C-alpha cells in the first residue's frame, strides 16, 4: 500500500511539473510576442514622427529596402521565410507592407489582424486557411482580403514555394496577434485535399 501511494504521489507530482513547465513556456512565448509588438509599434511611431514633416514623395530603391531580422520559429513553421520590409504605417496611411517569400512547406502560425490584411500574390502559389476549415489557393496576380479578427494562416504548399506582398492595417498600434502553431498534420490536411481537388478540376 505504501509503495502504491508513493507511486501515485510521484505520478501526480510529475503531472504538476509538466503543467507548470507548459505554463512557463506559454508565459515566455507571450512575453516575447509582446516585446516584438512593442518593438514594431515603436518603429511605426518613429517613422510616423518623421513622416509628419513630409512634403514630397519619397522613393526607396529596392537595394535600400531592409530585410526583417525578427523572423523566428515562434511564428513560422516548416522553416523560415524571407521578409523584406516595404513601408510602415504613417499618420496619413494606417498600414504597412512587406514582401514575404515562402520556401515550400513554410507557413505562418495561426494569427489574426485587429484591422485586417490584404495579400497580393507575386510569385508561385500561396495557400491560406481559416479556423472555419476553408482553404484557398492564390496564384501570382491574385489578391486575398482578410477581414479583422479572422483566425487564419498562410504560406507555401508542400511542393512549391510562393511569395506575396502583405499589406497589414493597424488598430491601436497593433497589426497582428500571433497564436498557436498549425501542426504538420493539420497543415497537410488543409493542403493535400486542395491539391487533389485542383488536379481533378483541370
Descriptive report:
With 202 residues, this protein is an alpha+beta fold. Helix content is 34%, strand content 29%. The chain has 2 helices and 12 strands. Strands 1, 3, 4, 7, 8, 9, 10 and 11 form an 8-stranded antiparallel β-sheet that branches. It has a two-stranded antiparallel sheet with strand order 2-5. The radius of gyration is 21 Å and the shape is globular. The termini are far apart. The mean pLDDT is 85.
How are helices and strands ordered from N to C?
Answer: HEEEEEEEEEEEEH
Cα(first) to Cα(last) distance is: 68 Å
**Mean pLDDT value:** 85
Radius of gyration: 21 Å
Unreliable residue stretches: none
Largest sheet, strands/sense/barrel: 8 strands, antiparallel
- Number of extended strands: 12
What is the 3D shape?
Answer: globular
Class based on secondary structure composition and strand pairing: alpha+beta
Give the percentage of residues in beta strands. 25-35%
Helicity range: 25-40%
**Helix count from the secondary structure assignment:** 2
Amino acid at each position: 500500500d505504501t509503495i502504491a501511494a508513493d507511486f501515485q504521489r510521484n505520478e501526480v507530482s510529475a503531472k504538476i511539473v509538466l503543467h507548470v513547465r507548459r505554463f512557463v513556456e506559454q508565459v515566455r512565448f507571450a512575453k516575447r510576442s509582446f516585446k516584438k509588438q512593442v518593438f514594431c509599434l515603436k518603429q511605426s511611431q518613429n517613422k510616423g514622427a518623421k513622416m509628419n514633416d513630409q512634403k514630397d514623395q519619397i522613393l526607396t530603391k529596392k537595394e535600400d529596402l531592409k530585410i526583417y531580422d525578427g523572423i523566428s520559429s515562434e511564428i513560422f513553421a516548416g522553416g523560415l521565410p524571407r521578409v523584406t520590409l516595404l513601408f510602415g504605417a504613417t499618420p496619413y496611411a494606417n498600414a504597412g507592407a512587406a514582401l514575404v517569400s515562402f520556401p515550400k512547406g513554410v507557413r505562418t502560425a495561426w494569427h489574426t489582424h485587429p484591422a485586417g490584411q490584404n495579400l497580393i500574390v507575386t510569385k508561385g502559389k500561396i495557400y491560406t486557411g481559416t479556423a472555419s476549415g476553408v482553404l484557398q489557393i492564390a496564384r501570382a496576380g491574385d489578391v486575398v482580403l482578410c477581414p479583422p479578427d479572422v483566425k487564419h494562416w498562410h504560406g507555401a504548399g508542400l511542393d512549391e514555394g510562393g511569395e506575396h506582398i502583405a499589406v497589414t492595417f493597424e488598430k491601436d498600434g497593433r497589426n497582428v496577434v500571433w497564436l498557436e502553431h498549425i501542426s504538420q498534420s493539420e497543415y497537410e490536411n488543409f493542403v493535400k485535399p486542395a491539391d487533389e481537388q485542383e488536379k481533378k478540376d483541370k
